[in-house]
Write a structure and sequence with these properties.
Order of helices and strands: HHHH
Strand content: under 5%
Number of strands: 0
Radius of gyration: 15 Å
Distance between the termini: 35 Å
Mean pLDDT: 85
C-alpha cells in the first residue's frame, strides 16, 4: 500500500479547529497504515471503524462552521461528506465479509488517501479560503 508518511503543512486551511481535526484524521489514517503493514487485517477493522467515527465527528463540525459562514456551496460539500462516509461504511462491511482482505485493504487505503488529499485541497480550501 502506498502511504502518506507525514502531514503536509500545505494541507492547512488556516482554520485551526478544522486543521486540528484534519491532522487527527491523518493520525488515524497513519495508524490504519501501520496496523496494515504490521498486523494485516486482524487489527485494521477496528481502526477503520474509528476512522469512520471520527470522520463523522469532523464532518459535523466542518458543516456547522460552513453553515455559520453561510457558505453557498454547503449542500455540495455536505454531499461529498455523505458519499465518503457511505463508502467507508461499505468498506467496513466488505472488509468483515471478504476472503481477500489483502486486496480490500489496498483498495481502502488507495481510496482514502486520494480522497483525503483531494477533498482538502479542492473543497476545503475553496470553502475556507473565500
Amino acid at each position: 500500500m502506498t502511504s502518506l508518511n507525514e502531514w503536509n503543512p500545505s494541507w492547512n486551511t488556516g482554520v485551526s479547529r478544522i486543521d486540528e481535526e484534519h491532522v487527527r484524521l491523518f493520525g488515524i489514517w497513519q495508524a490504519f497504515q501501520d496496523a496494515y503493514v504490521e498486523f494485516g487485517a486482524v487489527v485494521v477493522s477496528g481502526i477503520l471503524e474509528e476512522l469512520v467515527d471520527y470522520t463523522r465527528y469532523h464532518f459535523a463540525n466542518e458543516e456547522q462552521q460552513l453553515a455559520q459562514m453561510e457558505y453557498v456551496r454547503l449542500p455540495e460539500h455536505r454531499e461529498a461528506h455523505r458519499q465518503l462516509t457511505e463508502t467507508l461504511l461499505a468498506f467496513c462491511d466488505t472488509l468483515n465479509q471478504t476472503q481477500d482482505r489483502e486486496s480490500m485493504l489496498v483498495e481502502v487505503g488507495s481510496f482514502f488517501q486520494n480522497w483525503f488529499v483531494q477533498h482538502i485541497q479542492e473543497m476545503d480550501f475553496a470553502a475556507f479560503q473565500d
